[in-house]
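Posting this for the archive.
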Amino acid sequence: MEKKDLESLSLETESIEIEQPIKKLSVLVFRLGKIWLALATIYCKEITNRPSIHLIPHRSGKVLIGIINLNGKLELHVALHELLQIETSIEFNTGRLAYQRNRMVAIVKEGELWTFPVDEVDGVYEWDSLKIENVPIDFSKSVIDYVKGTMQMENKSVGLLDEELLFASLKRSIR
């Protein structure tokens, strides 16, 4: 084959696009105040009604609320909205059923369990991780450091929490 034929052959070959496999991420979507957040479900242990909270004597701080009884064990109950500096006094009428409002979420990582109240639980969703967007600069300033990406869902922007930073900050907050 002549050199000329090789050149024409290479020009005629089509480029083949390799499709990226869809990577699914299961997340729990919940609301604190007016901010919608998501956390990977592998860290979610339980969602339940808000329990009775027992204060811990001689412990003060904004993040640690107290302890609760979760399935017969005493667990720390924290104010995630305080850690993330989210205003929660705003009342929303989103048409949700009563069981979706005023809930508590229990999360666990490496054997450390944390519980916190949420204003509303939207549900568990499967996200295409390739469609998670960068955090826009107009996203809530108080939460922006704890969010590693966002997803648009039904006219709302949902921030995906950075679990490494979240768990490390919770641990630091109770010292």
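Residues 21 and 130 are 9 Å apart (CA to CA). Residues 92-99 have pLDDT under 50 and may be disordered.
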